[in-house]
Each structure stands twice: as structure tokens, then as C-alpha cells.
Amino acid sequence: MSASRPSPLSRRTVLAGTAAAAALTVTPALQGPARAAEQGTRAAERARPPAPAYRWRTAVVGGTGFVTGVLFHPAVEGLAYARTDIGGAYRWDDRTARWTPLTDHLGWDDWNLLGVEALAVDPAHPDRLYLALGTYAQPWAGNGAVLRSEDRGATWTRTDLTVKLGANEDGRGTGERLLVDPRDSDTLWLGTRHDGLLRSTDRGATWETADAFPATASPTGQGVTLLVAAGRTLYAGWGDSDGTTPNLFRTADGTTWEPVPGQPAGTAAKVSVRAAYDRHARELYVTYADAPGPNGQSDGSVHKLATASGRWTEVTPVRPGGSTGDGSADRFGYGGAAVDARRPGTVVVSTNNRWAAVDTLYRSTDGGRTWTSLKDTAVLDVSETPYLKWGEAEPKFGWWIQTVAVDPYDSRNLVYGTGATLYGTRDLKHWAPRIRGLEETSVRHLISPPAGRAHLISGCGDVGVLYHDRLTASPSRGMAANPVFGTATGLALAAARPSYVVRTGWGDHGNGAHSDDGGRTWTPFAAQPALGRDAPGPIAVSTDGGVLLWVFVHGDGTRYPAHRSADRGATWSEVPSFPEGATPVADPADPTRFYAYDTDTGTLFASTDGGLTFTPRATGLPSGDSQFELVAAPGRSGDLWLSTKGNGLYRSTDGGAAFSKVAGPWASYTLGFGKAADGAAYPAVYLVGAVGAITAVYRSDDEAGSWVRINDDAHQWGWTGETITGDPRVYGRVYLATNGRGIQYGEPV
Predict the structure, then answer these.
(1) Residues 6+ apart with CB under 8 A from 87
(2) pTM score, two decimals?
(3) Active site residues
(4) Mean of the per-residue pLDDT values for the chain?
(5) Which sign, positive or negative, has the C-alpha torsion 153, 348, 274, 181?
């Protein structure tokens, strides 16, 4: 994801670390209106029935996001950790061959901490783990934090920082930026993007600026890109060189830092991306690129430093800039670097942003004198996560490869991260996703059909639309094809004809498609408005499947009139009276009715002629809020629910002529419906919002008369405000979209 430039922070800022533990189950601080309503809220909570016990699991897709770092523990066989740009951190258990998520306890207010900038382990204390968290370094994002654990991430103590980190910004694949000092386990170092080098002498409880670090921080740069220990000497990479300033520094005493002497010609104009130390040969390998990545790199190199003599040697496997077989330029940078702890002189590096010839890993067993491309002999098996074929006959070896790791106890056990998965091998030839338990999908749309084989269809960022044959396995059909979408922008089914499903999104061969078998197979719309190519937005389908309404919104926020089709997408006509940019909602019982909410004016618009014209109904509703959602209750005509971020929940039972405020939720982000409880006449209502003091997931079995929280403090997943839906066939089952932790689904125990 691209990001705008952050504001400057003083390099000399001293961080007032929180020495007291912020334990896993700390109650979040009161927010917004809840502060004023605390007494009444607490009384209502005491009167509320006890929350039902829920079991939460992740619907399996497998990866789908950028794995930015993997770290094998040097002193514990079979133990490893992974970090992602928006999906938190994970611990690998070699015995079960699964990743365990470690940061799902982070709640709504801490959504910015789901991005992991860096991680570190302590070789002398195997149970210690440290995470540097912060997704964005922009002015609108919160400050970063450091989590520290004494039990491999089972429980945490937290220190809030006063600087920002950027785990989902350019340079997120560099590092690691966090390091335990090998001379003293109480001392930690943290490289920041805009605030220089920080040091803690109490195992991360408090932090201060390392004033002796000579590089000057920039408010818009990369700052410290890596920290690595070579024996008792520490090295720090720098990402803001002006072409003459060195970009690699070192300290032998933890106090005085200096530029590493004799740095290779040309590297001062590049970013030092990764480094790995061969302790047997006493050589430090450094990868370089002309940009921090993962995008934008066109040149790079690999060099090694003999730390005893100070002698530098270039060991670049292949120089960027040549030609590929089809004549296109072979431009790329270098990214990941790892050494074999058991075999001196054995090193693996990765190319990055090599789109023409496809990225690869180069492996050397003679200290970089000769190299072998592991891609050239690779046999890829993606049967466990079929979406990795991206609609093609064969999967790619990878892209955005900025992390690679070699098991210190098994030289042939090697893993590397990509923009979508983590590949692993045990023999350097056969590769497969090593991704079980690691789910990083950013989810936009969820449908649980009332009939058919699949209980769930999802629309996601990057991986389009998925038809979930089973919740416990990656969709066997992979991404919805014909056409393949990168990111889904719309997903809807005909309520009275659930076998008919439509989808929209960003695709190279069309931006809309329909299915007549519940989402198993797809056919592109025969035609699409010209706007569909550059601004595909949400779509709605009438309850009988006869009418489509497609809205167009450009990536820059520009909104356009909706278009209507009454022939399954063969022809389209503009609907001038539809409020531009609004999301269309079909009435689930009456095929002539559609609705749309104009957030600019706080007006509900409705159509009673199949979407040909729209007229205003209720006015004076909340407007200007940053988040609204209009939902129609299943099986009922004109039963509308309006979620508003800062103004609570509203309901209309007359097709939007009038709305009344629903008592209870003071904030409502997304709402959905599921099968009714036994004896109940109305569907179960599921809500992500704030009924009491915290934002959580709630269920109501009595038409919003009362609410019970159904998630817990260990299952919060950061920001969960995109969409939620219950299962119309299974009472109590609910599907929840997250922004980086995939699809969570819960069921009563």
C-alpha cells in the first residue's frame, strides 16, 4: 500500500517507556461518547445476560499477504517467528507444522499495531521475544509500541512509544530493525524510520535516543533499515543516503558509532536492505537496492565484508540491467540474505522486483564466488493454496522476495516470503507453501448463501473472490476466474434466487461477472460501462436477479453516476437520480425496490421501479461521518438498518420513509444477519460496534432489544469494521472480515 509523507519528529525525542505491564487482558480505555455515558453503561452491562462462550477460528485461505520477515531461533530447534505488514506476528511449531498468531489480542483502538515493523529473539534466553509494532508513520496514525514476552508470545508486556513505525510502508521488507545486544541481554536496539536509533537498557521497558549514532534522521526517509550482530560488533544499515553519505555503521562498544570503512563504490547511492553474518567465516553479507522496495527497485548488488580485516568483496550473483529472452530489460534489486549456520561460506540471497524474468533465490556454497539459481530447478506444489496460480497454468516462484531464512539446525530447510505466501523446502528442489495458520487476507465482502454447497463466498483485497467449499481448507477452485480479479469491489446475490451471484473488481480482462451456480463458475458481463475499467465499485442485484445496479468510484475518490442493466450485463444505462458514490442495496423481498444512502446529505434514497429512478425519503440523518453502512434484513421488504460510526444504529421498517434510533449501540460500524434462535421470529443480528465501553462483536436474538458480546479479549484482530454476516443455515455462526487477519468465524461452544 502506498502512503503519504509523514510529519517530522525530533531525532532527539526521549521515549517515556511504560515500565508497567499492559497485560493481555487489560480493559481498553473508554472512547468517545462512552466517556460521558460510563455510569449508565456500566449499570446496563451489569444487567446484561452473561456472554455466550464462542469458539473462534480462521476460514482457511492460506497467506495472501506480504510476509516481511522470518527468523529461526538460533538456540531452539524447530522454533521460528514470522512478521507481516498488516497481519501481525506468528510463531512456528515444527512439531505441528503450523503458525500460531501472536497478536490477535490487539483491539480496535490498536488497529495500527497489527503491522509488525521488526522482531527479535534473545539467543541466551530462548523464551524471550520482542516485537516492534506500528503499521503507518503518517500523521493520522497512532504511535508505535514494543511488545515483549517471556513465554514465546503466549503473554505480553507492552511499552508505548512516542514515535511512529511503518510496517506497511515502503521499506517494510528491510531489516530486522530490532536487535538484542549480544553482549547484554538487557540492552535492545530499535531502528526507526524518522527518529534515528533508539536504545533500551531494561529489556524494552523504556527507550531513549542513541545520541551517538551519527546519521541524521529525515522526516520522509527510511532511517535505520537493519541491525545485525557480527560477534560483539553491531552493524546498522541506513536508508537515507544522499549518494555520498555512508549507509552502513558499526559500534564495538555500544556507545560510539562510526561509518564502516571502505564501503564499496556505488553503494552510498543505494539502500542497505538486509545483512547476514557468517560467524564461521567471519564475513558479513549485505544486499543493496536503489530503492527500499518492495516496489520501485531497478538496480542492486551484494557485497561481503571480512569483519576481521575490513576487506570488502563484491559477490553479486547477476548484475541487473541485462535483457530477458523476449528483449525486455531485466531490472531488479536485491533483498533477502541468509547464511547457513552449519556450513561456512553457504549463503542465500533473493532478487526483488524482478518482473521480467521473475524473482529468484541465488545460493552459494563458496562464499559468493559462484551462485546457483534455485528457481531454475524448483518444483512448486501449490495444491494446498490453489489461488497462488492466479488463474494461470503454473504458479510463479515469487515476487516481493525480501526475506529468506535458513534453519540453523537443517541446512536444506529454507523458507522465503513473497507478497502472497511463504514458500519452504526440505531438499532445495521441491517447494510448497509453508503457511498453515498464517492468514493475512484483507477482506472486503462476505456472503453466506441460504442454499447451495458453499456456506461462504468472500470478496478480498489482492485475491479477488473466493468460493469456500470448506472453511477448513483453502478454496479448491482458487480465485474466481473468468475474469480473475486482483481486488474485489463488489459482491452480491439475488435473495430469492441465491444461485445467481454477481461480482465486480479490478481485472485485466473485464471488471464484472455473474454466476448461475452459486459462485462456483463465472461468466463475464457481455458488456460494461467505460467507467468499469478505471473505477469499478460496488454492485447490487434485485431479489429475482433481473436488475443490476453498478456504482463507480475512482481510486482518487471521484464518484460517478450508477449504471443499470436489466439483461444480465449485456447493456447498461445511466441512472442520473442515484446519489453518486452511494452503495446500492436491493430489497430482499420486492424486486422493484432498491435503496441508497447519501452520506453527504444524510438522506435515504429509494427506488420502486427496479432502479430506473430514485427519490429522497428520510432526511436529516447523520452525514459526513467517515463510515456508514445500509443493510436490508433478509426476507422482509423495507426493513432497513443504518450503521453510523459516531452516531449509533438506526432502523426503518417502512422502506426508508422514517428512521428511529436503536437504543444501545453508540457506535455501529457494520451489521449483518444470521439464522434466528430457536423460537425467535426475527433473524439473529450481528454487530461490530460499541454497545458498552469497548468496540467488540455483538449478537442480538431479540431484534436489537439486547446485545451480548461474543468475542473476547484474546480475539479482537485490530480493525474489524468492514463487514460481518451470520450464517442463514447455522444459528450462532458468524463470519467476520478483518483487515489483515483473514476471515474469522465464530460458533457457540
Answers:
(1) 65, 114, 438, 439, 440, 740, 741, 742
(2) 0.92
(3) 85, 462
(4) 92
(5) positive
